[in-house]
């Protein structure tokens, strides 16, 4: 009995060492689609109690990925809230997309744009968002409802009046 107690105490004493050595595995990402969202000129509501409110109308566009393709519908907007110092902007884009086979999907994309300096004092820029999809549960796109997604802009092929977003599913 005494030997068993000593073995248990020894095993428990190793837990902190084992925990330090084993880093958790990071989630993996699966590419879902690229959205090419056409936008109109931004307008400002002005300074509000929450910050400077800017609205960017969404006028159309397209999207395509390995298992989905279609168009971005006009009528949505990106509602941005900029901090007083202008270094941080919260965004919330609300719009709908329609697949090539006629299925409507609601999109709500929330994120952050931040500028500043990194730890070495160099200018930094951060722009990431987390789109949420609402697809009909009886459609072939219902899989969009059951995951977390992340997106970031793609500046590699700038198109005036268009924001290009690459979307990944967190696995």
Largest pleated sheet: 10 strands, antiparallel
Residue stretches low in confidence (pLDDT < 50, at least 5 long) are none
| Residue-averaged pLDDT | 91
Radius of gyration: 22 Å
- Shape field: globular
Key attributes of the depicted protein:
171 residues; mainly beta; ten-stranded antiparallel sheet; 1 helix; globular
Summarize the structure in words:
By secondary structure, the chain is mainly β. The chain contains one helix and ten strands. It has one helix spanning 2-21, and strands at 29-39, 43-48, 51-65, 68-72, 76-82, 88-99, 104-117, 123-134, 149-153, 162-170. Strands 1, 2, 3, 4, 5, 6, 7, 8, 9 and 10 form a ten-stranded antiparallel β-sheet that branches. A hairpin with a 5-residue loop joins strand 5 (76-82) and strand 6 (88-99). The longest helix is centred in the N-terminal third of the chain and has 20 residues, at 2-21. It is globular, with a radius of gyration of 22 Å. The model has no long low-confidence stretch (mean pLDDT 91).
Would you summarize the structure shown here?
With 171 residues, this protein is mainly beta.
Fold topology:
Blueprint: H1 2-21, E1 29-39, E2 43-48, E3 51-65, E4 68-72, E5 76-82, E6 88-99, E7 104-117, E8 123-134, E9 149-153, E10 162-170
Antiparallel strand pairs: 1-3, 1-10, 2-3, 3-4, 3-5, 4-6, 5-6, 6-7, 7-8, 9-10
